[in-house]
Amino acid sequence: MITIANGTILKGLELTPSKENILIDDGKIIEISPEINEGKIIDATDCIVSPSFLNAHTHIGDSIIKDEGDGLSLSEIVKPPKGIKHQALENTDKEIIINSMKSSMYDMLESGTTHFIDYREGGIKGVKLLKEASQNIPINPIILARDNSFYGENPDLNKVKIAIRKLLKYADGIAPSGFGEITQEVADLIVEECDKKEKISSIHAAESSNAQKKSIAKRNKSEVELTVESGFNQIVHVTNPINNDIEKLKDASTNVTICPRANATFAVGIPPIKKILKTGLKPLIGTDNLMVNAPNIFRELEFTLKIMRAQNKHYVPPKTILKFATTNICSEPNNIILNKTIHKSLIIEENEPQFMIVKKNSNNDYLSLINRTELKDIKYIFNKNLIKF
Predict the structure, then answer these.
(1) Which residues 6+ apart lie within 8 Å of 239 measured at CB?
(2) Which fold has domain 2-51+345-386?
(3) Three-state DSSP state, 100
(4) Which of 50, 77, 188, 260 could make an SS bond with 69 (beta carbons 3.0 to 4.6 A apart)?
(5) Which residues does residue 119 pair with via DSSP β-bridges, in sequence order?
(6) What is the Cα 352 distance to its own chain's centre?
(7) Superfamily designation of domain 53-342
(8) Is 249 helix (H, G, I), strand (E, B) or coil?
(9) 43 half-sphere exposure, CB direction, 13 A CA radius
(10) CB of 69 closer than 8 Å to CB of 46
């Protein structure tokens, strides 16, 4: 048994501050109360006990080319199959890729992330590389796969279906790059096969205004409309919605995941977070390409809080921003499908302990975490069990 004593717990879905102790036994929160005090005692005086982070969108394979391609266009860097990242992945030795991914997973873990959703390039081989790299690291990768058979104007749909079914034997879902690279028939097959297996279907959409213009010109629909009509579980970016794109997402069972730092780096804009929140959607947040961003959610949250206030000239509560990386995944209605696969927990009794104990650096618990946390301030991390580095 372990008791986390004397800390301020950010409890439940609403991250309500509570001065209580937490009793953990056999990978479960047994009791939360002021009186409990059993087993090994971890003193959390002057600390915040916060849910650990979900990094909801990464490309961890990009770890092999950190900070390369600066100044190139988004397409030149990331568009399959000839973007510089795809060329690098094809031409780099397996062991270098694995070691780079391991290093990035430890970077995430040491900065409070216990779960991440990765768009894994390279088909089954790519999925297996990440599974191998994550062995013996106490972090939960949710792996979304893709295959080169998806792409082109006239794909062989039988080959696509076979590829999807093979991938779903190893991966947690499927994530093609975007509607600029796949046909509607391929999108429909991805969603259909993922739904059958109750796995995640995800896609980039509306990342750039140029992509939106091309979608309208080619299909007479925005990329967001195509995502909703196809039935994808997760839409990543929504940086440049048009017309009533955001309202369409609200009416669908589609999770919205934003990546503000990556969008800023690639000069495609900043997601309209105020509009997204106004509809009642509860977005997730990700650090996106490791080639341009460190996978540190604290940095992502601080950037998002400040750029959103600057963009909208409007106060946004820091708790709202913190939820993007902690409890929104556990909320209705748009995120539950994802969490059936992810299994991210709130800090409540009977749940797995998935939290971090962080030194409090100000009297505002939420701003202390977002604005002032350094790696040295993270005292302990639990992901079912206590993690020792």
Answers:
(1) 206, 207, 208, 258, 263, 268, 269, 270, 271
(2) Urease, subunit C; domain 1 (2.30.40)
(3) helix
(4) 77
(5) 144
(6) 20
(7) Metal-dependent hydrolases (3.20.20.140)
(8) helix
(9) 2
(10) no
Structure tokens at 236: 């990543």
Instruction: Specify the pTM.
Output: 0.96
- Contact status, residue 287 vs residue 262, Cβ threshold 8 Å: yes
**Contact (Cβ atoms closer than 8 angstroms) between residue 215 and residue 179:** yes
| E-only strand ranges, 300-353 | none
What DSSP state is assigned to residue 6?
A: S
Tokens of 340: 């059936």
Three-class DSSP category at 355: strand
| Rounded Cα gap, residues 388 and 381, in angstroms | 8
Q: Checking DSSP bridges between strand 234-237 and strand 200-205, what pairing results, if any? A: parallel
Could you tell me the two tokens for 350? 């009977």
| CB-neighbour burial class of residue 127 (10 A; exposed 0-12, middle 13-18, buried 19+) | buried
Residue 334 has pLDDT above 70, yes or no: no
Whole-number Å distance between alpha carbons of 241 and 270: 11
Peptide bond into 138 cis (omega under 30): no
CA proximity to 292, closest of 322, 267, 258? 267
Per-residue pLDDT tens over the stretch 16-67 = 999 999 999 999 999 999 999 999 999 999 999 999 999 999 999 999 989 8
Contact indicator for 27, 353 with CB cutoff of 8 Å = yes
Length of the chain: 389
Domain extents for the chain?
A: 2-51+345-386, 53-342
Of 42-46, 51-55, 336-340, 368-372, which range is least confident? 336-340
DSSP labels, 159-223: HHHHHHHHHTTTSSEE--SBTTTS-HHHHHHHHHHHHHHT-EEEEEES-SHHHHHHHHHHHSS-H
Which residues are bridge partners to 116 per DSSP?
A: 55, 141
Whole-number Cα distances in Å, 313 to 239, 307, 323, 326? 18, 10, 21, 25
SS (H, E, C) 68-84: CCCCCCHHHHHCCCCCH
Q: Token pair for residue 370?
A: 């977002």
